[in-house]
Specification:
single chain, alpha/beta, seven-stranded mixed sheet, about 35% helix
């Protein structure tokens, strides 16, 4: 179900209380809700206000989906380009790095019809504004022309999220996201451009995608793409996401419900598990000569394009 809405602003300041240290302060989301249906998505809370309407949505729903409007109702900000231009044209705007799609994937299936990212990217080119994009869709290749043009002007970071190379498991965990191999086609497509490229292994799921074999398969493919960095993170469960994910486990992976309950007594996995996983991950990163540093290429690109330093972006409002 799609609902077209109008917005008064396109850019949102990211709260400094975020539990993650981020190399940008602004976020832009063309959509509210995401069709990819990733059962571990941290952003399910953002549709809380629509939960009361879940029963009005058409179509038969699985027990896992029936209480998650985030996957079922997609709000489309049809005037996002108009709102964005007002903010980019403001005298106080300092061309800070904007993260495109921090809550909802900018290249989810709806984008194939609406094409709003092309309007957004055209404005980024006009105003020479640096951006970061993370996606699970090869639809981003549609905008290769605009992204490569923007990357010649300023900093462009294109990251792809891959959690597993097992297509069947991926289809269970991330139903409408592109298959893993198609996501790697994105990294190969942008390998020889001026864009910074990265791989996000977010999240790594205990007992599902954390095997050394899966980690090595992903990292070996990443090395062939000659990307700039790799960022991992381990599944974090709280609020709506925790409830939804445990519903999934009970239906699809009942044998690991008890291990998850023990490991996730709180929001994060226990320290012993984390330490061991990162030990294995670090060894594989060294084996394939991959970097964890996503800030260095950003600073280098912004410096070479004679734009502000990363530290200049902190603490500024429109």
């Amino acid at each position: 179900m799609f609902e077209e809405i109008q917005v008064t602003k396109a850019l949102n300041k990211i709260k400094v209380t975020s539990r993650l240290a981020l190399p940008y302060s602004w976020d832009l989301n063309i959509y509210r809700g995401c069709e990819h249906g990733c059962h571990y998505c941290y952003a399910m809370y953002s549709h809380r206000y629509l939960e009361k309407e879940v029963n009005s949505f058409p179509g038969k729903k699985s027990p896992v989906e029936k209480n998650c409007t985030f996957f079922q109702r997609i709000c489309v900000k049809t005037n996002i380009d108009e709102a964005l231009e007002k903010q980019l044209a403001a005298r106080s705007w300092r061309k800070e790095v904007i993260n495109l799609g921090g809550v909802c994937d900018s290249y989810q299936p709806a984008e194939a019809n609406y094409g709003l990212m092309r309007k957004v990217l055209a404005l980024m080119i006009e105003y020479k504004n640096p951006v970061t994009i993370s996606t699970k869709s090869d639809l981003i290749i549609r905008d290769f022309d605009l992204l490569t043009e923007l990357a010649e002007i300023t900093y462009v970071n294109i990251a792809v999220t891959v959690t597993t190379m097992d297509e069947n498991l991926s289809a269970q965990l991330e139903p409408l996201a592109s298959p893993p191999e198609k996501r790697f086609s994105v990294l190969r497509a942008f390998k020889d451009t001026a864009a910074v490229t990265g791989l996000h292994m977010m999240p790594i799921l205990p007992f599902l995608t954390d095997s050394p074999q899966n980690l090595e398969q992903i990292l070996s493919l990443a090395a062939k793409c000659e990307l700039d960095y790799v960022l991992p993170s381990i599944l974090y469960l709280k609020g709506e996401t925790r409830k939804h994910f445990f519903n999934l486990l009970e239906l699809e992976f009942p044998e690991i419900v008890d291990p998850y309950l023990k490991m996730y007594a709180k929001g994060g996995a226990d320290r012993i598990y984390k330490n061991e996983l990162y030990r294995v991950f670090r060894s594989l990163m060294e084996k394939y000569h991959l970097s964890w540093d996503y800030v260095k290429p950003m600073q280098a690109k912004l410096s070479s394009s004679k734009q502000f330093k990363l530290t200049d972006f902190l603490g500024n409002d429109l």
